[in-house]
């Protein structure tokens, strides 16, 4: 920088980072739906969101108005897409005060083609987002280790206990979110919090919830162990250890989504595919 130049402010840096994300990461993964059949694209994205565990069996999908806002389409388009999910048995429509579209099954005969159409064109970009997210979550954990308060640690312990006691996939997902929200809060920086949530939304195809896959006891045990290790590093104030653990922990999401795409392609996880297509990796992504 020239000695007379004015250093960038925090707001300047935030705008610069936002511009990079918008220019590089947004078009394929999060751009407004713009295809010949908008309802087909919306239905595909919703089926994929259910397949990767954004929304779990028994859970209510967001309402028409919220989905229309998330996907930047009309409510009529959302209504047509939900009708398609109902027709193939992925959701059921309930009436009354608690009515809405409830997930019945995470995977049906129609799911594989929807997952392929949704994930394959986006995959190179998603790989970049997975990598960026691991780096950012490493920063989050490092910062939390340096700044955490007794109240922050108490919130993490409550979330850890909830995760250890979870009896359903939905309870696991809620406790997982509570733990990572507590780590985020410990940074004391709303902009770091916003960046983390933005990346979560991008890797989740625009839905602001952690992809959670299907019930997998091995993945649950791995996550439980890693949560405890991250907490211990943050409690000890070991920033480098906390960051390294978090970077590895967040490969769980990319590994799960890679496995779902391989399932949609009819391949055994880890089996090599044509150039440009994903294959599972052993260990961190």
TrEMBL record:
Keywords attached to this Swiss-Prot or TrEMBL record, sorted alphabetically, are: DNA-binding, Transcription, Transcription regulation
Region of interest (Disordered), ranges: 266-285
Q: Does the keyword Plastid apply?
A: no
Write down a Pfam family by its short name.
FCD
Tell me where in this chain the HTH gntR-type domain is found.
36-106
Q: Amino-acid biosynthesis: is it a keyword of this entry?
A: no
Q: What SUPFAM superfamilies would the database entry show?
A: GntR ligand-binding domain-like (SSF48008), Winged helix' DNA-binding domain (SSF46785)
A GO term for molecular function: DNA binding
InterPro entries for the chain: GntR_C, TF_FadR/GntR_C, Tscrpt_reg_HTH_GntR, WH-like_DNA-bd_sf, WH_DNA-bd_sf
Q: PANTHER family recorded for this chain?
A: TRANSCRIPTIONAL REGULATOR, GNTR FAMILY, UXU OPERON TRANSCRIPTIONAL REGULATOR
- Protein name in the entry: DNA-binding FadR family transcriptional regulator
Source organism per entry reads Streptosporangium brasiliense
Write the lineage as a comma-separated list.
Answer: Bacteria, Bacillati, Actinomycetota, Actinomycetes, Streptosporangiales
């Amino acid at each position: 920088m020239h000695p007379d130049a004015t250093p960038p402010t925090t707001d300047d840096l935030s705008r610069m980072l936002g511009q990079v994300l918008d220019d590089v990461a947004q078009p394929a993964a999060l751009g407004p739906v713009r295809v010949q059949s908008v309802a087909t694209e919306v239905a595909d994205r919703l089926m994929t969101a259910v397949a990767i565990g954004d929304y779990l069996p028994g859970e209510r999908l967001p309402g028409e108005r919220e989905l229309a806002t998330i996907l930047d389409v009309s409510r009529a388009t959302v209504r047509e897409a939900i009708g398609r999910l109902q027709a193939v048995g992925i959701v059921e429509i309930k009436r009354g005060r608690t009515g809405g579209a409830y997930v019945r099954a995470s995977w049906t005969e129609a799911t594989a083609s929807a997952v392929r159409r949704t994930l394959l064109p986006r995959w190179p970009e998603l790989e970049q987002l997975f990598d960026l997210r691991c780096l950012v979550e490493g920063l989050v954990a490092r910062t939390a280790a340096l700044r955490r308060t007794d109240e922050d640690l108490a919130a993490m312990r409550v979330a850890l206990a909830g995760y250890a006691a979870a009896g359903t996939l939905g309870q696991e997902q809620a406790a997982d979110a509570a733990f990572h929200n507590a780590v985020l809060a410990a940074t004391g920086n709303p902009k770091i919090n916003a960046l983390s949530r933005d990346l979560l939304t991008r890797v989740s195809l625009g839905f602001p919830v952690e992809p959670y896959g299907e019930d997998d006891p091995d993945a649950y045990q791995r996550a439980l162990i890693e949560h405890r290790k991250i907490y211990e590093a943050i409690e000890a104030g070991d920033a480098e250890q906390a960051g390294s653990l978090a970077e590895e922990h967040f490969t769980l999401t990319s590994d799960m989504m890679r496995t779902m795409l391989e399932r949609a392609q009819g391949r055994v996880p880890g089996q090599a595919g044509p150039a440009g297509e994903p294959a599972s990796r052993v260990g961190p992504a």
